[in-house]
Design brief:
Largest interface: A-B, 20 and 12 residues
Oligomer: heterodimer
Number of strands of chain A: 11
CATH topology of chain A: Rossmann fold
Shape of chain B: elongated
Helix content of chain A: 10-25%
Radius of gyration of chain B: 16 Å
Largest sheet of chain B: 3 strands, antiparallel
Structural class of chain B: alpha+beta
CATH class of chain B: Alpha Beta
Number of helices of chain A: 5
CATH superfamily of chain B: Phosphoribosylformylglycinamidine synthase subunit PurS
Number of domains of chain B: 1
Low-confidence stretches of chain A: none
Strand content of chain A: 25-35%
Order of helices and strands of chain B: EHEHE
Distance between the termini of chain B: 6 Å
C-alpha cells in the first residue's frame, strides 16, 4: 500500500501519521501543500492534524483551497481513499468531501485527553478490525471538534451507517456524539480523535493501530 | 473601492463564544443582555470594476462556510 501524507504549513501530526502508516506496512510519501500532483500509484492520502495556515479564517478553510487539495479531491472522486484526522477532518469538510462542519468546542476549551470512542460500524476498510459497539481509547486534541450538520444530514449519515465513531462521553458538544464519519462510498474517513497517537506501546495505548492494519490489509488485496 | 463582508454563524447554530460573552456581561452587572452572537468583519480593498457578484463568489468559495455561516456584503 502506498500512502501519501499531506504537509501544510502548521501541520504537526504529519510525521506521526507517516510512522503509523509505515508500522502497518505501507510505503509513505510526504506531499507538500504547494505540490499540485499526488505521487503515482498512491492508494490513500492522509490529511494530518495540526493548525494548517495557523487556523486563519476558519480551521481548514485555506488548506481546502490549496493546490494539493484539488488533487486530493480528484483522487477521492476516482474512488481513492482519504483519511483526515483532526485538522484533516476539518479540511475534508471544508472541501466538501464530507458533509457538515466542525465548530468551536461547546465548552470553549481546547481539550487534550484520551477518550472512549465507540465503534459505530465495522463496514469500512478503516473499521473492519474492530468489533461493532466496541469502545476504544483514543486521544483527542482540539479546540474546534464540535461536529455540526443539519438534522437531515445527521439522519442520512445514521441511515446510511456512515457514522464510524462516536464519543462514549461527549467532550465537545458534537451533534449526536459524532466523532468520525465516512463518505458515501465509505472510502473517505474524517475523525477528530487521533488513532496515530495510540498506535505504539510507547504512546500509552495501541487501540488506534487496528485502523491502520485493517487499511493496509484491505488495500494490499486490491 | 472597498467592500465589507459580515460573516455570522447561522441562527440555530450554537455560538459558544457569544454565550461566553453574554455570561461575562451578566457577571459584570450589565443586566438585560438576552443574547450575544459573535461574527467577523472582513474588509476587502478591490480593483475598480469588481462587482458585488464577484464578492459574493468569494464569500461562497472561501470567506464563509455556508454550512454554518451566513454572510452579507456592503459595497463602497
Amino acid at each position: 500500500m502506498h500512502a501519501a501524507v499531506v504537509v501544510f504549513p502548521g501541520s504537526n501530526c504529519d510525521r506521526d501519521l507517516a510512522v503509523a502508516f509505515e508500522a502497518a506496512g505501507a510505503k509513505v510519501s510526504m506531499v507538500w501543500h504547494k505540490d499540485s500532483e499526488l505521487p503515482q500509484g498512491v492508494d490513500i492520502v492522509g490529511v494530518p492534524g495540526g493548525f494548517s495556515y495557523g487556523d486563519y479564517l476558519r480551521c481548514g478553510a485555506i488548506a481546502a483551497n490549496s493546490p494539493i487539495c484539488r488533487s486530493v479531491a480528484a483522487h477521492a472522486d476516482r474512488g481513492g481513499y482519504v483519511l483526515g484526522i483532526c485538522n484533516g477532518f476539518q479540511v475534508l469538510t471544508e472541501t466538501g468531501l464530507l458533509p457538515g462542519a466542525l465548530l468551536r468546542n461547546a465548552g470553549l476549551k481546547y481539550i487534550c485527553k484520551t477518550v472512549g470512542l465507540k465503534v459505530e460500524t465495522t463496514a469500512s476498510d478503516y473499521t473492519s478490525g474492530y468489533k461493532a459497539g466496541e469502545v476504544i481509547d483514543i486521544p483527542i486534541a482540539h479546540h474546534d471538534g464540535n461536529y455540526f450538520a443539519d438534522a437531515d444530514t445527521i439522519a442520512r449519515l445514521r441511515g446510511e451507517d456512515r457514522v464510524a465513531f462516536s464519543y462514549a462521553e461527549n467532550p465537545n458538544g458534537a451533534q449526536d456524539d459524532i466523532a468520525g464519519i465516512l463518505s458515501e462510498n465509505r472510502r473517505v474517513l474524517g475523525m477528530m480523535p487521533h488513532p496515530e497517537r495510540a498506535a505504539d506501546p510507547v504512546h500509552g495505548g495501541t487501540d488506534g493501530a487496528a485502523l491502520f492494519r485493517a487499511l493496509t490489509g484491505a488495500l494490499e488485496t486490491v | 473601492m472597498k467592500a465589507r463582508v459580515h460573516v455570522m454563524l447561522k441562527n440555530g447554530v450554537l455560538d459558544p463564544q457569544g454565550e461566553a460573552v453574554r455570561h461575562a456581561l451578566g457577571a459584570m452587572g450589565f443586566d438585560g443582555v438576552n443574547g450575544v452572537r459573535q461574527g467577523k468583519v472582513i474588509e476587502l480593498d478591490l480593483a475598480e470594476g469588481t462587482t458585488e457578484a464577484d464578492v459574493a463568489a468569494m464569500c461562497e468559495k472561501l470567506l464563509a462556510n455556508t454550512v454554518i455561516e451566513s454572510y452579507s456584503v456592503e459595497m463602497g
